[in-house]
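Q: I have two molecules that I believe assemble together. Could you output structure tokens for the complex as a whole instead of separate predictions?
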Amino acid sequence: MTNLGTHQDDNRPGTITPVGVARMAPRRTRISEWFDQRAGTYFIMPAVVMILIFSIFPLVASLIMSVSRIRLRGGGYNVRYVGTQNFEKQFFGSEQFHFLGTFADLSPIAWILILASAAGILWWLFRYVTTRFSVIGFAGRLVTASMVFGLIVLFSATLVSGGRMGTLGVTLFYVFVGCGVQFLIGLALALLCSQQIRGRTFFRIVFFIPLMVTPIGIGYAFRMIADTTKGPFSPFWQWAGLGDFAWAADAWTARIFITVGDSWQWIPFIFVILLAACENIPRDFVEAAEVDGASQRQIFFEITWPQIMPVAASVMLIRMIEAFKIVDLPNIMTSGGPGIATESMSLHSLFAWRSLDLGQSAAISYLLLFVTVVLCVSFFNLVVLQYVRKT
Amino acid sequence: MTTEPSLSPMNRSLFARLFTPQVIGKMPPGTQFFVYTALILWSLFVLFPIYWVFITSFKEAVDVNRGPFFIPWVDFTPSLHAWRELFIIDYEDTLTAYANSIVIALFSTGLCVMIGSMAAYALARIQYKPKFGTIALFVGIMIVASVAIAKAGLDWRIAMAVAIAVFVVLARALGPKFKASLGNGDILFWMISQRILPPIVVVVPIYMMFQNVRLLDTHLALILTYSVVNLPIVVWLMYDFFVSIPKDLEESAQLDGATRFTTFWEIVLPMARPGLAATTLLVMILAWNEYLLALFISTTKAQTMPILVAAMNAGERGILWWSMSVVIVVMIIPVVAMAIVLQRFISKGVLLGAVKG
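A: Yes, here they are, computed for all two components at once.
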């Protein structure tokens, strides 16, 4: 850049160069000067343009697709506006069983669950209104509350009452059960590894490895391992009398195996970050407490937990965001089966695309985006920010 | 885990002696036993699937189908048939996919880290004031252009070129009149929040886009897509690094007449090396393992390793577990090597800093 032009002018208005320094300064050409004054633009423009082209534009295009019926015609597309028909189909129409699930009559337990959660949510909103109140805060909480209540009603009507879960329920199962298990085990491992033990580096490297393994590989590896006739644990299954039990043919074992595979991969992520957080706690705190005769439990709840809580909340947010995208493991391990029992929303959308129903595929992916955004933003505002503010 | 330590050491029960700290900062033997057992069990849980895939890659079909065999040379004879088949007899597909994966992972990581860290540096150092009016103007012009493409059947290249030209001219003319503006924090949030977007939402339009410009099933398509998907991670991790680097050095370099870019390239990037290394490796691993986008965008020519693995499921011979295991093993080896390198950076709390911020 510096030897492109022949002219040199160090004293252009706008660049402040002290005289003494200017004499020593390398010669700047007009072009590099011109570039430098626009540094702010060209530093950030590539990223902005890339995001606009590959993220924002497809997002808008997808929205348009979700309200249209698209037919392939001679190498081109024939797009027709159909309003919210694609969405209505998911909620009320022919695809209801697939997306929301099969409803059953509400059982007494389901009624109790619904009423209890309604009461809890109303009390939570009431407390917010009476203690501190802002219009935006209230509107946000209202959105969160209605989403949570809607999902509880959905779970009560399908799972609790004996109906079947649709892809929405299955996705939420992967997200909440998976993330919960991963957090608990990740935290436990981090606490164990932060003790004064030998071979820390070894354990740390070993525990970190699953994060690097391709999800496809994990899917197939767990399929091999879980096989009850040829897998490594088949002698055990035979002994337990489950020799011809096919885990992939039962909805719950299939879901649990997928969660195990997912946890195997993601626990390391939570583990490394919580371990770093644990090691950041000043050693003196813990030792002082030990000298004062605090029990291990007291040390954990009074010192460790408050110190790592902000990091833990952020890690869970990141993990949740990624968990909503789950697609490879169900696709590889069960391809959504038995029936639709392990199909996540991403996979549902992928299958819709495969059957060339682009409008529906886009509608499902938009519903996924909506659920993800509402739940993640709620988690961020209600949990993460609270801890960040405190520290 | 323990009860309150009793003060007189004489009348402790065995349990208390095993679980009560004798020396400050050192674990009692009972706790120690528990901790090591838990850690070793977890190590086995982590390593076993990898071990199983590894030995399966040396098994004959009959060894896989006749039930579990655990230790090579003891209960089955390892054979290299699957390796030979993939790397000598039928090497073309395997090596093409391997080369594709390497090229795509390297280039997308390079592009992504370059663009992302430039943006992150700019956001950490330069004050931006994107005006609401300019953004609204951009959106408006894009809507007009899209309507023109959809309804009037205008060629999209011409429409986009005209729209961008009009936008630049109008933004120059009207720019100073707009008052309300956003700040750096908003841009940063906008970029990072792109990560929330599930790839399934954008992949079909991206597929159509590449189809339109005839880039489907090329390296370039995957490189560009992966760069954008991983961009939020780079911006997010690197921003934190650049903020923590003191400004003095850059300021004196600028007084000496260095341009922004020279400062960035020669002073800031070398200082951010640990963060840069961790970010690069993280992004590279994500690009290496990616499945969903590759499934859409690459079919044959630009097929990556994950797609090759999945394709082995589709043959009429059933699932070729041994060949699949070979491919998984060759995919795992480079990343595990990286994991050992990356671990050093991560234990320094590279990710931690970003998570806290």
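A: One point stands out. Chain B has 17 helices and no strands.
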